[in-house]
Amino acid sequence: MVPRTNKPDRSLFVPGTIFLAAMLPAALHAAADCTVRSGPTTNALVELYTSEGCSSCPPAEQWLSKLARAPRAAVIPVAFHVH
Q: Is 26 a domain residue?
């Protein structure tokens, strides 16, 4: 019987590192080409995360619905239900 060691398996470490090192210049070049400009007005992104059994979630969802329907709110509401 061969004794077990607590050393991690490094069989994929070197190839993975070489791959990441090879891809880094391309990723940096792509990031350098990205330009973002805001227009004269901006919108606010409002994220609501709700879960089952949350007593304050239904009122928060109602508030977010009203906010979404408000004229000229300049708000982008997004709701995520987390299980």
A: no
Per residue in 23-82, pLDDT (tens digit) is: 787 777 666 667 778 788 888 889 999 988 888 889 999 999 888 888 777 888 899 988
Residue 30 in any domain: the answer is no
Whether 39 and 74 have beta carbons less than 8 Å apart is answered as no
Q: What angle do CA 65, 61, 59 make, to 5 degrees?
A: 115
> Is there a domain that residue 60 lies in?
yes
Looking up tokens 């606010």 gives 44
Indicate whether this model's pTM tops 0.90.
Answer: no
Number of structural domains found in the chain:
1
